Amino acid sequence: AQRVTQPEKLLSVFKGAPVELKCNYSYSGSPELFWYVQYSRQRLQLLLRHISRESIKGFTADLNKGETSFHLKKPFAQEEDSAMYYCAPLNRDDKIIFGKGTRLHILP
Amino acid sequence: EPEVTQTPSHQVTQMGQEVILRCVPISNHLYFYWYRQILGQKVEFLVSFYNNEISEKSEIFDDQFSVERPDGSNFTLKIRSTKLEDSAMYFCATLQGAGPMNTEAFFGQGTRLTVV
User: Fold this and answer.
1) Does B28 touch chain A (CB under 8 A)?
2) Which residues sit opposite A84 in a β-bridge?
């Protein structure tokens, strides 16, 4: 069965500390992987995708096919990073499935 | 910048009534989705729509639900005989889908449905 696991419901990190939001997936084939973010009172929006291998707002995510993981990382957390983060694979059926999400809370 | 628009932003309805949630997709997008998010829970896939038909639907999307594109622009979600547990935020999303870099989903701001 296709599954996305984000093990942490809430992650609290001090400002300036490194951040890692975990995501593991269980999918047949090679899904395209995304991280979406929802800031307070804003709509869900794309943060980054693995295919473009770019850094957005200091975040990066490396696809590890061996571990079937796509963890989101940032070396130094900022207060404006506080938000809800969703790992979301897009499969061949063009269905986007969201993980349960991790609420990132940056402590001052 | 083009965006997905949903109306209404908030709908209150009595249990047993029918509601229609509306979405205006981005004009050149080919794939359309409805998701819902019950308060405090994750974003759940309901249905995807492509080429004027449902391409996939979840277990949640039973006979109570239907979708259509009545006029080629609006994309609607109809919920018949609403129940208390249908209370949630409903999100519309669209995706262009033509080409490997056109797979970003754009979300509407959501419709909060409250069934009383």
Assistant:
1) no
2) A38, A103
Pairing of strands B111-115, B10-13: parallel
pLDDT per position as a tens digit, B77-100: 999 999 999 999 999 999 887 666
For residue A26, give both structure tokens.
């269980």
Tell me, yes or no, if A57 comes closer than 8 A to chain B by beta carbon: no
A residues 73-92 lying closer than 8 A (beta carbon) to B: 86, 88, 90
- Residue with structure tokens 């999307």? B61
Low-confidence ranges of chain A (pLDDT < 70): 1, 92-93
Q: Which of B49, B46, B43 is nearest to B74 (CA)?
A: B49
Alpha-carbon span B67 to A95, nearest angstrom: 16
A51: helix, strand or coil: coil
Question: Can you give the C-alpha Rg of chain B in angstroms?
Answer: 14
- Residue A85: predicted pLDDT: 96
Q: How far B106 CA sits from the closest chain A CA (Å)?
A: 7
- Is the CB of residue A3 less than 8 Å away from at least one CB of chain B? no
Q: Does B17 touch chain A (CB under 8 A)?
A: no
Q: Do B55 and A96 touch (CB under 8 A)?
A: no
* Residue range A6-36, pLDDT digits in tens: 999 999 999 999 999 999 988 777 778 899 9
Q: Which residue of A lies nearest to B107 if distances are taken between CA atoms? A: A44
